[in-house]
Amino acid sequence: MTTLDDTTSKTRGNASDDIHDEKSPIDMAEKDSHTTYSSTENLYQDDALEPVYYAKTLILNRAIEEIGMGKYQYMLFLVSGFGWFADSVWPLITGLILTPVVDEFGFNPPFLSLAVNAGLLVGAVFWGLGCDVWGRRWCFNITLFLAGVFGLAAGGASNFITLASLLAVMGVGVGGNLPIDSAVFLDFVPASRQFLLTFMSIFWCLGQLVVNLLAWPLIANFSCPVATPTSPPCTRSANMGWRYLLFTLGGLTLLLWAIRFFVFELAESPRYLIGKGRDAEAVMIIHKIAAYNGTTSTLTVDQLAAVGGGEFSDKQQETKAEGKKLSLTRTSDFTLGHIKSLFRTRKIAYSTSLLISVWGIIGLASTLYNNFLSFLLNSKGAHFDDATLNITYRNSFILSVVGIPAAFFATWLVEIPQLGRRGALAVSAALTGAFLFATTTARTSNALLGWNCGYSFFSNVMYGILYAISPEIFPGKDRGTGNGLTAAATRVFGLIAPIIALYADITTSVPVYIAGALIIFSGSLALLIPYEPRGKAAM
């Protein structure tokens, strides 16, 4: 196992010997970190954050930039990407297995999506808020384990109720991946490398590619034939493809969890620790990571204590006294405090509200379209006289391949000065919606596939930017909560999509028009976000 515990460092010093004047904590911290941030501004230049936390974060940002991008951060990029991979694979499963599962169990299709999205909603709220209360480390490891175990078990389901229940619990695990993983990565990466969070969407695209690559041969070759009025009943023995797919992906997810848990040792987030007043632990972790990277850090406890003030000192003593004996009431108080921090001032409340709205609207539009994409392709194929499972999953595979270069394009787009994160999100959302509208003009199967390739490319760009801009804007000590709220919004609206499908004809172009208009509207909202993270250090 790669470990950080074999490293010791001196964590106290005399950095505060000459800091006994009447300057504010922010003034002292900005003076202390001026040389490092001569070319990188801080995201928050107002009173959005508590002064003591803001001051300590300035010092911590300097220390992380001083360490630089090393082995620890690259390993963290890899294992955090596993969460993107899982979050891509498992929600997509609903659409890929829908046709053969309906053939076997005979239920109303939207109910399966409803069950999975309910689990994703619970997971986003529970793990997102929980990682700000209990810490990032254990939440980071548990979520992937839950997804693998219950995803694997779902392959053995003998009826719809069992399948939906197991996939719902799987969703509880998957729902926490992105809120936690994006927070963890930003907690350790230098400001000059924050764009890598956008590039992490490459794992999302790879997840789409892998799941479609597996689904194509398994479901196409081990499923009941397309149902007709004279077809015999679809039996389990003739319909094992979707089960093989769940077994394979469940095992793969557990393998990724094992790499996370046994090969890489995640240190607790120093941003989380200073938010709890545990300065000495935060400094110790910074020094361990520096040693792991083969470098050193000049950060000391005294530097943090010099700007700490009584509030954080008292909080630190309280945390030490309580240890792990946190009651449910105390946990609720902590959680409410993290939510309040995201609405502390009018500007940050406006920013948080806009981010939640953008996520919710995109969640509704994308779920409405993506979860029934195979149905749309199949029904259109029937009109074009090429409706077979093989063609349907071949087309899904092609769409997933198109997503790979989207991660590179998104990373380039967000670094364009004239666009930044907000402009890039608006442009990609507008193009995503435009390609959705264009699909309604298709008169051949190949034309429909071509328009969907454009949609796949720009929707992957859009998601890559969306999953990065939100955690970059939220303060570090409340980042999990903010990520949880935005993810919960997309899951809540995702629950609405199957309900719409229950009362609408999903084989028509109606969901396409609705989805396209909503996505374009969400892009216009992104331009109103008051903070632009490009070129600024996350706090």
From TrEMBL:
Domain Major facilitator superfamily (MFS) profile: 76-534
TM stretches of this protein: 74-99, 111-131, 138-157, 163-188, 195-220, 240-263, 348-369, 397-416, 423-442, 448-469, 481-504, 510-531
Chain positions covered by the region annotation Disordered: 1-26
Membrane is among the record's keywords: yes
Biased composition regions of type Polar residues, renumbered to the chain: 1-14
Single GO MF descriptor: transmembrane transporter activity
Subcellular localization, as worded in the UniProt entry: Membrane
InterPro entries for the chain: MFS_dom, MFS_sugar_transport-like, MFS_trans_sf
Gene Ontology CC terms: membrane
Keyword Transmembrane included in the entry's annotation: yes
Family membership noted in the UniProt record: Belongs to the major facilitator superfamily.
Protein known as: Major facilitator superfamily (MFS) profile domain-containing protein
Species whose genome carries this gene: Psilocybe cubensis (Psychedelic mushroom)
Lineage: Eukaryota, Fungi, Dikarya, Basidiomycota, Agaricomycotina
